[in-house]
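Render this sequence as a predicted structure.
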Amino acid sequence: MTVAAPILPGAAIGILGAGQLGRMLAVAARRSGYRVHVIAPGAGQAPAGQVADVVHDAEPTAELLRSLAGELSVLTYEFENLPRGAVEAAAECLPVRPSPHALATTQNRALEKTFLRQHGLPTVPFESVRGAAEAAAAVERFGAPAVIKSAGLGYDGKGQAGVDSVEAVAAAWPAIGAEEAVAEARIDLAMEVSVVAARGVDGRFVHYGVTENRHRDHILDLSVSDADLDPALCQQAVEIARVVGEGLDAVGTYCVEFFIDAGGQLMVNEIAPRPHNSGHLTIEGAVTSQFDQQLRAICGLPLGSTRRLTPAAMVNLLGDVWDAGTPPWDEVFADPAATLHLYGKGAPSPGRKMGHITVLGDDRQEAADRALKLRNRLAPHVVS
């Protein structure tokens, strides 16, 4: 296997998207001596634009990305809501990592589920559907209750609706907001977990273990390192993540999210082809953070150690934390093993991810308890 020469400090990295994931990647890149271009509408005031060397406040069209090819050494992305044609055009001119193929597969739930099935990986029962009639027929085949999810670009519970009967599908369909969707059986959920991993240009695979994730209103609330699971189940999750990376020929940090049902069966829920919210605890909790790992991978450098330094937990700070005014940030700094991350976003709003707190502890439960207590001190009105 021929591997291209590594991209070294001093080179310019392009990031498509200007949110918090781009911001944390830009901080990692600039710390290591790279220049960072951020490309997105409104990027100047956005989280990543605030820390970039160069901001391109524009839609990432094929023409724009081709024009930047001479300035950039590599192009990556921090979210999947991107025009596929423009990314493919960029890949003709410079390395795009992860590849347009990985992006196309993971930005469409129907394609992603089909990819998983083709690779023999476990999922909940599902069918790709177009229209309420096909969705109702699918639910009738595998049984209610079920969840209908838009095929394209849904996240944090958006573009989906739960149904308790076949008859309820027609009324729920308008909430999907798309012609194409995936109908899934609803399982008896015991736990949600994820594996954040990385794959280099040489195919080397590393991972951060299995993280437990707890959600509130379909949005990640708390992540705790090293989920309390049977070691065989953890090994299965890591192996699935490895197969996903190989199947996508992924280069970079990525995440595989899983459901575990009441019977202990592991099923893939979604793939994120970039750093993930559940991996934020690696910034303080691992030798190499998921963002430093992304930088190493896309630049063709050796991957870093994923060794856990200490048990860690991460709690999200959503817009509702600000409902009673500016939170008392001194409460966070009073804990010597807590780190506050604020993303530099504008006005807070319900469900908007504004920041997070990471807490290091003697064990995973202690770290989780302290993280939640800190968030509760900031916002006693928020129910954990």
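Summary. The longest strand covers residues 205-216. The longest helix spans residues 231-248.
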